[in-house]
Amino acid sequence: MAPKSAGDQLCQLLAASVLLDDAALSLLANSANEGKHVDFVAHLESLLPSSASHSNFDDLLRDFIDFCARSAIYSNSAISKAIERRKAERNHLRQVRRNIIKSLRLNATLTQSECIRQHWQYYYEKSLQPDSRIPRHPLPREDPAKINRVVAEDENVIFYDAKTGDVVLMVVRNFCADADILQWVDEVIQSMVPLKKDIWKEDPGEMVQIGYTAGARSQPSFDWARNLKSKKHSPEFICSLDYKCSSVFALFWNMLLGCLPDQIIDDLTNYLDATGICRMDASGSRTSSHGEYTVKKGDDAVVFRDVELAPPTGVFAVNYARHGPDHDCTAYANFCAARAMHYEHMPHNYAISWTTNRRGTSSAGSNFYLAKYGIKVVAAANTMVAWRSRDIHGMNLQDRSPYDDEPGFLQASMSFVTSSRIKTIWERYAAEVISVQEAEALLAGDAEGDIQYDSD
Fold it and tell me: Which of 146, 161, 221, 444 is the right S-S partner for 336, CB 3.0 to 4.6 Å?
């Protein structure tokens, strides 16, 4: 019999300990799951003698399992049974991953009715304003005669500009074909929004920033947005939140890559390539467009590795509607006067949103309007909308009281939005022209500067 290698000797030592440890056997059996994998490897490392070295091991868990599979003394042991359970779980997760890839195709405030108007009239006319310098504005009603096209709740559609042939609006209903994954994405959004600072205090509802801002002075690169309301969270808790956020956006991005027209995809990827800007990766890597993310489907956590990650910035929103000044209806080309109608300057042409949840009828407001073309998109859960950010657009108010802590209405969403000056701000910061605090303030305040109303 050939003498055992140093690696085999270490694995035999570890196996002898694991065999007598029920907790370790349980970790081994469940180590196909990403979190348990880390826990079991950490446990193995804790069992190693202080003098032992496994620096030549590419993967301690892999080498441990390989040794046990080759060793006859463990062929019918509790270790082999745990390894079999791990194999079955790994095969299950692989099948779940294949199913996900197949099913998800991975590769202005306007009031709609008098009832809604009554909900919000006192709020806009009398309530305390976060910024008293901003004038109060009346609440105009939607004029159905000015709407050329209504996209129904169950309608999928792409609109093209008749003169240029460019895509101006795309609506995809039932965007996520998996109900469990849709529920997980929505739970992440609704759990994150209360924890983070609202970036639009003047507007109804809440919208919070997700992704990168400027980094530390000692490392001239972007850093993850530090916008939690509380300072008492542990680093581990914050890391888990950030990873969930980047995973949700990575999933959204890869779903978009499988369904958007080339014109929209090229617009976004050209921006990413031209700027060299980092992707939304909570693990801290800023040098690669690829990385990993995890998707929850029921009790299963499926990891996707070496896949394209999302653009660096986005937002989560709950019950949000854009606040803005009035406009002359003649500026809208056959539309109507509306408070929320605005357009945005971004370094790419298209903005994209995914409404993950909606509780309320089609007449309950929060519908999307593309004013330039007189199009109204009736809001519905699990809907993706892509539009040109410089075309005048907005949403109307919801059928809920702004003073009700538990309104019957609910709408949650996520979107890709990008400051027009994000790369310039980073370059100024990297050159130490501005401090990290000034860079973060500019990134937070610059979002308002990107928004213009038709009368500006």
Answer: 146
Residue 59 neighbours by CB under 8 Å, 6+ apart: none
User: Considering just the CA atoms, what is the radius of gyration of the chain in Å?
Assistant: 26
Cα–Cα dist 262/268, whole Å:
10
How far is it, in rounded angstroms, from Cα 414 to Cα 210? Answer: 10
pLDDT digits (tens, 9 = 90+) for 160-192: 999 999 999 999 999 999 999 999 999 999 999
- To the question of pTM greater than 0.85 for the whole model, the response is no
Compute the half-sphere exposure of residue 132: CA atoms within 13 Å on the CB side of its CA: 2
CA gap 344, 348 in Å, rounded: 10
Q: DSSP per residue over 92-147, as a string?
A: HHHHHHHHHHHHHT----BB-SHHHHHHHHHHHHHSPPSSTTSPP---PBP-GGG-
Q: Provide the token pair at 302.
A: 């499926």
Contact 344, 451 (CB under 8 A): yes
The helix/strand/coil state of 444 is: helix
What is the tens place of the pLDDT at every residue in 303-325?
A: 888 889 999 889 999 888 765 43
Q: How far apart are CA 246 and CA 253, in angstroms?
A: 10
Q: Which of 27, 30, 32, 1 is nearest to 14 (CA)?
A: 27
Q: Give dist(CA 11, CA 73) in Å, integer.
A: 13
What tokens appear for 371 in the block?
A: 């004013």
| DSSP conformation class of 157 | E
Task: Name the token pair of 192.
Answer: 């994150």
Burial of residue 13, with CB atoms counted within 10 A of its CB: 0-12 exposed, 13-18 middle, 19 or more buried: middle
Task: Report the SS3 class of residue 394.
Answer: strand
Q: pLDDT (tens digit, 9 = 90+) per residue, 36-48?
A: 777 888 888 888 7
Burial of 177 (0-12, 13-18, 19+ CB in 10 A): middle
The residue behind tokens 């030592």 is: 13
- Cβ atoms of 368 and 358 closer than 8 Å: no
What percentage of the chain carries pLDDT values higher than 70? 69
Reduced to 3 states, what is the DSSP secondary structure of residue 48?
Answer: coil
